[in-house]
Specification:
single chain; alpha+beta; Elongation Factor Tu (Ef-tu), domain 3; OB fold (Dihydrolipoamide Acetyltransferase, E2P); 21 strands
Length: about 425
Amino acid sequence: MNPLRRWPSLLFTLALAALLLAGCKSQPAPAMPTGPAEVAVVTIQSGPQLLNTQLPGRTAAHLTAEIRPQVNGIIQSRLFAEGSFVHAGDILYKIDPRPYEAVLNQAQADLGTSEANLTTAEANIPALKLRVERYRDLVAIHAIGQQDYDDARAALVQAEATVTARKAAIGASRAAIETAKINLGFTPLRAPISGRIGKSSVTVGALASAYQGVALATIQQIDPIFVDVVQSNADLLRLRSSLESGRLKHDGAQNKVKLILEDGSTYPITGTIQFRDFSVEPSTGAVTLRMVFANPREVLLPGMFVRAVVEEGVRQNAILVPQEAVNRDPKGTPYAWVVGADNKIERRTLELERALGNQWLVLSGLAAGDRVVVEGGQRVRAGVPVRPVPAKAAPDQATQNPAAPAPTKAGGHV
C-alpha cells in the first residue's frame, strides 16, 4: 500500500486519542472527607423496668388415677369411650359378678344357720341352770350323789360354751357377708376422679387379676393443670440478694406466671406459683417450681413443653442500652463509645446483667443522659472529636414500663 494513503487514518487516530486524554483530565478528583466523623447516637434514659425470666418446663396432670381391678374375674363390658370425659363414680368396666353373688348368698345362709343354732343353744341354758341349783340342795342333804351334781354342772358349762361358739359363728358369718358384699361391689369398676380417660388396655372377655401391674385405663384431670419448671439455685440466690439489697422491688404480682407455648404463642390465662421445692437436685443444682393454670378449653395437655414467664420485680432507675452499641475487647469485656459534652469520644467499660429484647440491662458504666454511639463506632477512637446525630429508634426496643413484662432470657431466675 502507498504510505501516503495511510497518513489520513493515522492523523485521525492521534486526534481521537488527544480528545479522550483531554476529557479524562477535565474530570475533578473526588474530595477527601474533612472534619469530625459523623456517628449516630442514642441518649440513655433511666426508669422503672419490670424484670421477668423464662423457665423451661413441662405440663403435668392435676390428678391421675390408674384403674386396676381389686377382684379377679372376666371383663363383661366396657362402658366408656376412649378419650372421653368421665365423672367420678361412673362405671367404666363390669367384671362377671356371679361368683361373688354366690359367695354372698352362701355367707348369708351360714349366718341364718348360726343364728338358728344359737337360739337352740340358748333355750337349754335356763333348764340346765335350774337342775344345777336343785342338785346342789340335794347333795347337801345326801339325797343324791356328788357325781350327779357334777354331771349337771358340766352339762351347763358345755351349753354355755356352745352358746359362745354359736355367737362367734354368727360374727364370722356377718364378716363373711361384709367381705362378700365388698368384693361384689368391686365387680363394677368406677371412676375415682373426674377427667379424661385414655385408651383401654383390655377388651371384653379378658381376664382381670386383682391389683395387677398393668392398669386397665388411666384418668387424668387436666383442668386445672400443673406446670413443673426448674430454676438454678445460683439464680435463686442472686434474686434474693437483689431483693434484699433493694435493687429489685416487689410489685405484689410475683406469684403471677404466664406461659409461652411450643409454637411461640402466649397462653391466654395467667397462672400462679403453687410451691417451690425445699431441696436442690444434687446432679443439676436446680430447684423445682410447681405452677397451676386453669385449663377450661384443654389447650394444655400433660407432657407439653412450655416456657413459664415469671415476674421477678421492678428495677428502679434501670439503664437500658441497644445491643449494637455494646462492643467487646479481646478479653470479652463489654464497653461502649460515649460522646462527651465537648463531642469527644470516651470509652466506657460496662457491667451487664442480662439481655432484654434487643437491649442490654446495664449495672454500671452508663448513666442517664449519656450519648452512646450505635453507628459509626468503628471509625472512632478515644479522645477524637465526632459529629453526633440522633439514631433512628429500633421498632422492637424494650420499653421501660413496669406495667408490661419486658422481653426475657431463657433459663434465668425466679
